[in-house]
Design goal:
Blueprint: E1 11-17, H1 22-38, E2 46-52, E3 58-63, H2 67-83, H3 86-93
Antiparallel strand pairs: 1-2, 2-3
């Protein structure tokens, strides 16, 4: 028998900004603006990280994508955290890199 406690009691999802410096920061900003302006999307703006609430240890970490993709991914993961058990959530999302 599986525990039906929502995964949100044990895990939380956050977007962590990708920090860049110097030319990398300027290049990223230019690609982001161009991608968003053309509707093609840009480079990843953040990492999506799923953390254990008790220890803040990362369970899942992946590039979140463009602004729109990051928002959609965060919403999808938060919905699943509320509706799935930890086992179900990890079966669905566990393929993302840690």
């Amino acid at each position: 028998m599986s525990d039906r406690t929502p995964a949100a009691r044990f895990l939380r999802a956050e977007l962590h900004e990708i920090r860049r410096r110097g030319l990398g920061k300027a290049w990223h900003a230019a690609l982001l603006i161009a991608g968003e302006a053309t509707g093609l999307g840009g480079p990843s703006v953040a990492d999506l990280v799923v953390l254990r609430t008790s220890t803040d240890a990362p369970v899942i970490r992946t590039r979140a994508g463009s602004l729109d993709e990051a928002d959609a991914l965060l919403r999808a993961i938060n919905t699943d955290l509320e509706q799935m058990s930890v086992e179900e959530f990890l079966a669905e999302w566990g393929h993302l890199k840690v």
